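> example.struct
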C-alpha cells in the first residue's frame, strides 16, 4: 500500500507506519488543501524526507480549485516548488486535482517530472491523454463503481490498459457497495477491480496483472509482491 502524507505533521507518522509495516510504502508532500498553514520550513523538512531511500513518491500534491476560500496563488507556489523537488530527486508524483486539470498540466509541462499518478482522475478524455503523454497513470477507485458516473466509467472502459491503476483513497471516496457513513478500506480493492473488469470485459485476474504492472512501472520503488 502506498501511504501518502498531506502536511508536515504527518511526515513522521507516515514514516513510522511504513517502517513498522513492510507492505506500506511512504510518499511525502504538502496537499493543496493544507498549504494555507504551510511554511518554508515545511519544504525543508519535506526535502529531508524525500532524500530517504524508502521514499516512493512526492505526494499527495496538486491543485484544488473546487473548494472555495483557498488561495490559488499559494497553492500554485507550493505545487511548483514540490514539482521541482520531485525532479531534483527523480521521484514520481501523486497528484490531487479538482477543477484544475489544465493548470496542473501546465505546471507539469514546465517541470517535466518523471511521471506519477493522477489520483482519482475525473477529467476529460482529452485531458487524460495529455497526462498519459507526460508519463502519468490515471487512478480509478470507488467513484468508478457508481452507475451514474457514466463519463468516468466510459474512460475506465476505453483508455489504454497500460494507463490505469487502481486505488481506494481510504477512508474516502466510498464505492457503491458501502452503506452511507461506512469508511472505505484498502481491503475493498478487489471489489473495485471487479467493476473495472466488468467495464472492460476482461477477467479479474487480468485486471490484477495489468494494474499491478502499471503501478510498478510508474512507482519503481514498489516492492515485488502480490497483485491488486
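> example.seq
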Amino acid at each position: 500500500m502506498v501511504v501518502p502524507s498531506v502536511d508536515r505533521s504527518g511526515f513522521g507518522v507516515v514514516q513510522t507506519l511504513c517502517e513498522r509495516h513492510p507492505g506500506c510504502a511512504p510518499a511525502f508532500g504538502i496537499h493543496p488543501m493544507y498549504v494555507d498553514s504551510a511554511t518554508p520550513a515545511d519544504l525543508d523538512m519535506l526535502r529531508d524526507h524525500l532524500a530517504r531511500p524508502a521514499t516512493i513518491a512526492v505526494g499527495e500534491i496538486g491543485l484544488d480549485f473546487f473548494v472555495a476560500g483557498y488561495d490559488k496563488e499559494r497553492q500554485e507556489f507550493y505545487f511548483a516548488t514540490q514539482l521541482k523537488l520531485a525532479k531534483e530527486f527523480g521521484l514520481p508524483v501523486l497528484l490531487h486535482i479538482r477543477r484544475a486539470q489544465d493548470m496542473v498540466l501546465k505546471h507539469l509541462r514546465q517541470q517535466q517530472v518523471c511521471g506519477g499518478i493522477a489520483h482519482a482522475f475525473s477529467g476529460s478524455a482529452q485531458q487524460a491523454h495529455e497526462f498519459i503523454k507526460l508519463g502519468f497513470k490515471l487512478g480509478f477507485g470507488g467513484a468508478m463503481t457508481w452507475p451514474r458516473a457514466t463519463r468516468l466509467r466510459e474512460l475506465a472502459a476505453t483508455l489504454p490498459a497500460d494507463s490505469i491503476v487502481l486505488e481506494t483513497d481510504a477512508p474516502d471516496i466510498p464505492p457503491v457497495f458501502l452503506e452511507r457513513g461506512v469508511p472505505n478500506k484498502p481491503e475493498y480493492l478487489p471489489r473495485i477491480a471487479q467493476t473495472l473488469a466488468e467495464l472492460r470485459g476482461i477477467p479479474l485476474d487480468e485486471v490484477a496483472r495489468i494494474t499491478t504492472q502499471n503501478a510498478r512501472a510508474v512507482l519503481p520503488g514498489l516492492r515485488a509482491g502480490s497483485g491488486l
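> remarks
Residues 1-114 form a domain with the TIM Barrel fold (CATH 3.20.20.140).
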